[in-house]
Recover the amino acids of this structure.
């Protein structure tokens, strides 16, 4: 067994109200790929940030080759040979490869940047990684995989001993993943301890040497990769807990509310698409949409909402076939409403109050001869606040002063005011606390019981299993499975979501 | 929030009025105050349009040039008329028809801005910088750089009456003040109490969230430039009417005054925040400042310097977050007031 290079001992990180990490031990072995897995919120990213010096542990200590270390900034960790590559690459797309590599550490001569020398060193590093990338090329012009190489090269500029990689393959094609794995093999051979975080379980079996599973801020298990298999990982990740949401229990109606027939959205640069998808949603039915990142779930919802006019296929809502070019406002008027995944970027209007946000999509109904009456919608807002249990001092409070969960409920309130027949929800439980989550799910159950159809995307398997009457599993733009409530568990979800990939 | 920002401009206005009232005996007289408001009316009209544009998340640099060009169009219509070649006659439109044509021309320039910004996806700053040059060039070209000096019209031509718009009185109050007041009231109503107005705020606050709420973002963005162009034209026509002549360089640099007024009135250049009334107060602040300093015999040059300081100080005050200052009685309220 190889030696332990970097070790976290009894690391605890407390945030106000939550314990993100609870006495976690983690070892990274030299010359191996050390896998870190866990569900969203299990504490992976917190641990990663502590290892990389971006966060400081509340308790516990870090040992680098047996020596006690403590970092206050990522650059201190970097100086000791600990590099990190974030999921969102921190490169400047407007600058050249060489400029990115030396950003903040430029080689200068007489106060001017020594471009020649930088290009020389850059070329040497890149060639060393067995890649032929021109150091003068703009990073923005490179493919994502090449950008990743640059990010790795940037980390390698220092004498790297530990390399932390956060979901490095999430935006790569399978060919590009190959290239990355080869590169990781080289790094291993040089004795680097790679700490690898990924949701793509099938990859882990392939490249991992050691695995640590986090669950609810604790280490659930640690093992040699050769001794375990996929079901073991899933079992350790998920545990025995269940999301406790009472199901609405109503039988869905027979008539389909939404029928999607052969919907396709051409492959985009980032490699995601919707590939000849057909399915239906009935009134009063909650349909879950599960898949890994990049499976095309969000794109599917966006196509339904008319955000991608270039998508083709037949979409029928309550008997009416929707024209491809039908705008968003017209789709809302016909009874469709999307609650987006990114609350800050696409959900709330930060400059508006709670009340203004709730009424925003519904102004047509309040107009009287072209004017909005004084205090328009006040009753609806008050009703929404009460019905959805939005915790706010008053409707005139700025939306940004509310917690994430209450913002999410406000967005749902806005959507419900448009009296939709079909609600499309993208990750409705993301980024909100457990209590708010349960409340949001209860609301979903309630409106479904009242006859609304819901199609929701979630990456959290427990949510899907607890909520959905029926679940569609997507992989690479296709629906690979349709599972009925009560006949499947989280393992089935994951196996179907990765299934296609394992076959490749 | 909006209240607090409007309050800031209002406070600045009160402070300046009190200050000048002490320093100059002739400041607080009816005739001087009327002069100040008349002085602010042009900038006020421009600032109202500018506010809508800025709230939507854009900027309109073309308003000064639009004002100049539309003043020239009305000047040409009154002064030269429309010669109809085939018949060998010259048609002189009625003064109000000329005004309507001028305002329509301004709206068209705004529509061009809106089209380029929403369809050709050119940044508002660049688009309106381009139309600034084009409109100014057209204004100069239209009469070879010279002015149309006779806007009184000729009774025989049936086109008299334009100067009333600049210098006339209605119920003892100068017409430009009426124009400002009516425009303020109407545009405040549109901004605050119509679907379109609320959509402008939503688009400026978060374009994607607005789009997902069913707001037709492009249509909203295009329309604010049409309104801004029409108001700019109206301002340009008032300038011409006040001077009894339309100059090709009228309104040069006024776009910056309008932006200054809007910013003083609490409009955020990031979009989503600002009020029509705040911007009009902002325009009044600038007019009071200029008038007061003039009464005190302080030179034009100093007026500019002081105006610059006032803009920066007023906005800087907004950046100092009250919650970093320990004021016991503000505790608990500051979230509501500032966020």
């Amino acid at each position: 067994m190889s030696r332990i290079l970097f070790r976290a001992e009894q690391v605890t990180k407390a945030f106000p109200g939550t314990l993100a990490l609870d006495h976690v031990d983690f070892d990274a072995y030299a010359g191996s790929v050390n896998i870190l897995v866990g569900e969203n919120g299990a504490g992976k990213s917190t641990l990663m940030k502590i290892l990389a010096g971006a966060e400081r542990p509340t308790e516990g200590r870090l040992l680098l080759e047996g020596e006690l270390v403590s970092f206050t900034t990522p650059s201190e960790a970097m100086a000791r040979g600990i590099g990190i590559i974030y999921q969102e690459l921190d490169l400047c797309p407007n600058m050249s490869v060489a400029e990115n590599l030396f950003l903040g550490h430029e080689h200068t001569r007489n106060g001017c940047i020594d471009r020649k020398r930088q290009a020389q060193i850059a070329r040497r590093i890149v060639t060393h990684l067995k890649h032929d990338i021109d150091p003068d090329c703009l990073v923005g012009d490179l493919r994502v995989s090449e950008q990743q190489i640059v990010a790795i090269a940037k980390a390698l500029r220092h004498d790297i001993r530990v390399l932390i990689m956060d979901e490095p393959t999430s935006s790569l094609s399978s060919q590009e993943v190959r290239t990355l794995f080869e590169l990781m093999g080289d790094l291993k051979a040089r004795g680097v301890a790679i700490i690898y975080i990924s949701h793509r379980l099938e990859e882990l079996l392939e490249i991992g040497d050691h695995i640590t599973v986090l669950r609810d801020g604790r280490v659930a298990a640690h093992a040699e990769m050769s001794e375990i298999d996929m079901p073991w990982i899933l079992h350790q990740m998920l545990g025995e807990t269940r999301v406790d949401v009472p199901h609405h229990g109503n039988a869905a109606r027979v008539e389909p509310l939404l029928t999607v027939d052969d919907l396709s959205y051409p492959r985009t640069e980032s490699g995601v698409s919707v590939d000849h998808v057909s399915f239906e949603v009935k009134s009063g039915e909650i349909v879950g949409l599960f898949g890994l990142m990049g499976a095309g779930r969000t794109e599917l919802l966006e196509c339904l909402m008319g955000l991608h006019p270039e998508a083709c296929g037949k979409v029928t809502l309550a008997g009416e076939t929707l024209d491809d070019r039908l705008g968003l406002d017209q789709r809302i008027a016909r009874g469709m409403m999307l609650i987006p995944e990114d609350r800050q970027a696409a959900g709330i209007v930060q400059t508006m109050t709670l009340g203004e946000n709730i009424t925003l999509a519904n102004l047509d109904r309040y107009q009287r001869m072209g004017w909005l009456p004084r205090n328009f919608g006040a009753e609806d807002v008050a009703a929404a606040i009460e019905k959805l249990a939005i915790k706010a001092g008053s409707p005139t409070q700025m939306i940004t002063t509310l917690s994430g969960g209450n913002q999410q409920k406000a967005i749902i309130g806005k959507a419900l005011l448009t009296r939709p027949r079909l609600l499309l929800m993208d990750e409705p439980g993301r980024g909100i606390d457990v209590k708010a989550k349960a409340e949001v799910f209860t609301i979903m159950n309630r409106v479904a019981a009242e006859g609304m159809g819901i199609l929701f995307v979630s990456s959290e398997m427990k949510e899907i299993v607890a909520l959905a009457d029926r679940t569609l599993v997507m992989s690479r733009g296709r629906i690979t499975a349709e599972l009925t409530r009560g006949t499947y568990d989280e393992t089935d979800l994951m196996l179907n979501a990765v299934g296609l990939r394992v076959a490749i | 929030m909006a209240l607090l920002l409007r309050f800031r401009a209002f406070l600045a206005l009160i402070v300046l009025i009190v200050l000048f009232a002490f320093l100059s005996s002739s400041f607080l007289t009816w005739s001087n105050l009327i002069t100040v408001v008349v002085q602010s009316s042009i900038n006020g009209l421009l600032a109202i349009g500018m506010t809508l544009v800025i709230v939507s998340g854009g900027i309109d640099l073309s308003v000064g040039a639009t004002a100049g060009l539309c003043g020239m169009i009305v000047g040409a219509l009154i002064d030269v008329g429309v010669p109809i070649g085939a018949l060998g006659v010259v048609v002189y439109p009625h003064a109000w028809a000329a005004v309507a044509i001028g305002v329509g021309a301004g709206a068209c320039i705004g529509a061009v801005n809106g089209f380029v910004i929403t369809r050709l996806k050119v940044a508002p700053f660049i688009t309106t910088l381009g139309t600034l040059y084009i409109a100014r060039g057209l204004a100069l070209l239209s009469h070879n750089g010279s002015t149309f000096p006779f806007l009184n019209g000729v009774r025989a031509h049936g086109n008299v009456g334009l100067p009333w718009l600049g210098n006339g009185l209605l119920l003892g109050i100068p017409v430009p003040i009426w124009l400002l007041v009516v425009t303020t009231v109407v545009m405040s109503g549109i901004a605050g109490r119509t679907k379109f107005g609320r959509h402008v705020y939503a688009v400026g606050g978060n374009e994607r969230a607005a789009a997902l709420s069913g707001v037709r973002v492009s249509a909203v963005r295009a329309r604010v430039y049409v309104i801004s162009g029409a108001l700019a034209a109206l301002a340009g026509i008032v300038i011409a009417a006040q001077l009894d002549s339309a100059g090709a360089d009228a309104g040069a640099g006024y776009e910056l005054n309008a932006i200054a007024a809007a910013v003083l009135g609490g409009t955020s250049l990031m979009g989503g925040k600002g009020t029509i009334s705040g911007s009009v107060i902002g325009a009044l602040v600038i007019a009071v400042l200029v008038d007061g300093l003039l009464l005190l015999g302080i030179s034009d040059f100093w007026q500019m310097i002081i105006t610059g300081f006032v803009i920066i100080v007023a906005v800087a005050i907004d950046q100092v977050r009250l919650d970093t200052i320990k004021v016991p009685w503000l505790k608990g309220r500051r979230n509501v007031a500032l966020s």
Observations:
- The first helix of chain B runs from residue 2 to 23.
- Strands of chain B lie at 82-84, 89-91, 169-170, 173-174.
